[in-house]
Write a sequence for this structure.
């Protein structure tokens, strides 16, 4: 049963709920149906956070109103009174118009509430609304209604979730518009033309080269290449090559470097930011690099033909939201299923030493802020790759350790060996030692050879020094 939002009060709880929000966001990868994306989000919020119901409205193309596309929880219909909200009307329309997030824990007393009796009868106390904003546009509004009060920190959870949701919705809406536009201009065609033909049409001013045998790609992958081509066209692309390899398809392009005073990293992020994230979610990469002559920028987009997710679960609970998001994306690219809690079959990935006792298997994120604790099963560096994470998980689930130096076992001397060393330290010879403890001289030599082997010592004097240093023997008295 989902826990109520009331618990969002401390930093540990906030990180836990950020993780739960990330789990909702990770289910959106590759989906290009805006209404399906909205339903995934509202259903996830109801299931993960125990709110009474959750809704998403999308801004209509003429931007005069919002249309309700998803509703989960107490109400699932999308054709009621609030199915269409004029821009600026009611609280939802005002959130879209003013782009201001809002949270209240006294809903029945809010002056903008249309039906106060309904809120009281259904024990609805909390309301949170967040604009789904990308660049300078609002594409929709997310709203939650809760029977329990919500902490102000919950808006931080919504902010992180809505960042991903907005990008996914914007890509899906653009794709939907492009498909409708393309169908209207190509009514006689029954199938999409090859990707190279579509890219060549978009990059009409650039020279396109095709390498390899062209294959049919999933719609989500084709769309990322087309969206990248559109960006390249706006940036005056001068060269583009599309390569179909063994496991992935690659686009390489060259564009002129901007002749402005703006920072290059900021310029690249503004142009390709959302596509970098989308490529990452599809298991690929989008990279940019300034040319050696400083006058052009090289673009590389590489996406695998398909991902092969596993059923292996992993729980990620990092103290820093940045680490939380980074390792969540890494786990997604590695094909793991994200889980809310660790278990006997679900390892915990964390940098929080206080959580070590909550999991049977722990993958420790090694940072410079704190030493590596005892009791962990794998040590992960910040530059770990998806393949290395898969290797670490497989090793840990076998009960073995990964990337951890096992300290050498302590050397154990028997009581007889320590007794002989003690007598040797007193200056006795082998014959005297044998007579003292009533064994043969050859047995004394046998025990001494064992001591030399265990201590890896070359001489008896070296063995005595090592034994004294380890505290097995007292320091010999000074000779007067």
């Amino acid at each position: 049963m989902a826990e109520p939002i009331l618990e969002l009060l401390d930093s540990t709880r906030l990180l836990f709920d950020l993780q739960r929000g990330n789990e909702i966001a990770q289910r959106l990868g590759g989906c290009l149906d805006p209404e399906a994306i909205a339903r995934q989000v509202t259903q996830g919020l109801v299931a993960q956070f125990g709110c009474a119901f959750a809704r998403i409205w999308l801004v209509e193309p003429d931007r005069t109103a919002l249309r309700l596309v998803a509703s989960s929880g107490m109400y699932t219909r999308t054709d009621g009174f609030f199915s269409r909200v004029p821009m600026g009307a009611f609280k939802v329309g005002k959130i879209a118009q003013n782009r201001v997030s809002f949270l209240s824990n006294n809903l029945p007393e809010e002056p903008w509430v249309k039906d106060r009796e309904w809120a009281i009868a259904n024990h609805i106390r909390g309301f949170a609304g967040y604009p789904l904003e990308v660049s300078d546009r609002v594409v929709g509004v997310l709203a939650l209604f809760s029977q329990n009060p919500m902490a102000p920190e919950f808006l931080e959870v919504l902010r992180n979730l809505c960042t991903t949701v907005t990008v996914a919705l914007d890509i899906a809406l653009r794709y939907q518009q492009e498909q409708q536009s393309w169908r209207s201009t190509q009514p006689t065609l029954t199938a999409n033309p090859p990707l190279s033909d579509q890219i060549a049409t978009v990059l009409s001013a650039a020279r396109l080269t095709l390498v390899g045998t062209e294959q049919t790609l999933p719609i989500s992958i084709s769309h990322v290449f087309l969206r990248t081509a559109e960006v390249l066209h706006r940036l005056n692309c001068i060269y583009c090559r599309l390569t179909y390899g063994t496991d992935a398809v690659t686009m390489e392009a060259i564009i002129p470097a901007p002749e402005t005073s703006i920072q290059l990293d900021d310029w690249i992020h503004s142009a390709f930011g959302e596509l970098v994230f989308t490529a990452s979610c599809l298991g690929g990469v989008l990279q940019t690099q300034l040319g050696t002559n400083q006058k052009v920028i090289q673009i590389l987009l590489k996406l695998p033909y398909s991902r092969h997710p596993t059923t292996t679960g992993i729980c990620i609970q990092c103290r820093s939201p940045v680490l939380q998001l980074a390792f969540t994306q890494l786990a997604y690219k590695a094909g793991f299923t994200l889980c809310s809690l660790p278990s006997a079959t679900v390892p915990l990935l964390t940098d929080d030493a206080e959580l070590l006792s909550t999991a049977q298997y722990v993958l420790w994120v090694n940072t410079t802020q704190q030493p590596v604790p005892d009791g962990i099963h794998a040590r992960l560096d910040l530059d770990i790759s998806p393949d290395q994470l898969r290797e670490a998980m497989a090793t840990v689930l076998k009960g073995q350790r990964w990337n951890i130096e096992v300290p050498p076992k302590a050397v154990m001397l028997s009581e007889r060996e320590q007794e002989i060393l003690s007598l040797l330290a007193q200056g006795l010879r082998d014959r005297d030692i044998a007579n003292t403890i009533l064994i043969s001289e050859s047995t004394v030599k046998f025990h001494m050879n064992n001591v030399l082997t265990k201590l890896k010592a070359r001489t008896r004097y070296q063995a005595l020094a090592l034994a004294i240093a380890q505290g097995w023997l007292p320091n010999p008295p000074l000779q007067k």
Summary: The domain at 5-181 is CATH 3.30.450.40 (Beta-Lactamase). The longest helix spans residues 154-185. The first strand starts at residue 53 and ends at 59.
